[in-house]
Amino acid sequence: MSTDDRLDEPTAEHSRTTHYEIRVRGHLAAGWSAWFDGLDLTAEDDGTTAIRGPVVDQAALHGLLARLRDVGIPLVSLTELPADAPQRAANHEGN
Questions:
Q1: CA 15 and chain centroid, separation
Q2: 48-88 per-position pLDDT tens digit
Q3: How many domains does the chain have?
Q4: What separation, in Å, do the N-terminal and C-terminal C-alpha atoms of the chain show?
Q5: How many CB atoms neighbour CB 83 within 10 A?
């Protein structure tokens, strides 16, 4: 096997889905969730909306960011969440 052949093989790092939190200015209605591929939207007390959930790859992440840009929704932050964050976020929202 050559080095070039190994580049085409998926690795554990490349095949895992990463969870992100995209924070935007303003509160988005729950109906926007479908527009963001089913990610969870949470209206925060600070006047922002947190869009959280799994994103399959970097191309999908860039697509989500492009959608925000295209409709003029101001981006506040983008954070990669730790692997245990989705469970922690779900527990927090239930309080």
A1: 16
A2: 999 999 999 999 999 999 999 999 999 999 999 987 765 44
A3: 1
A4: 53
A5: 10
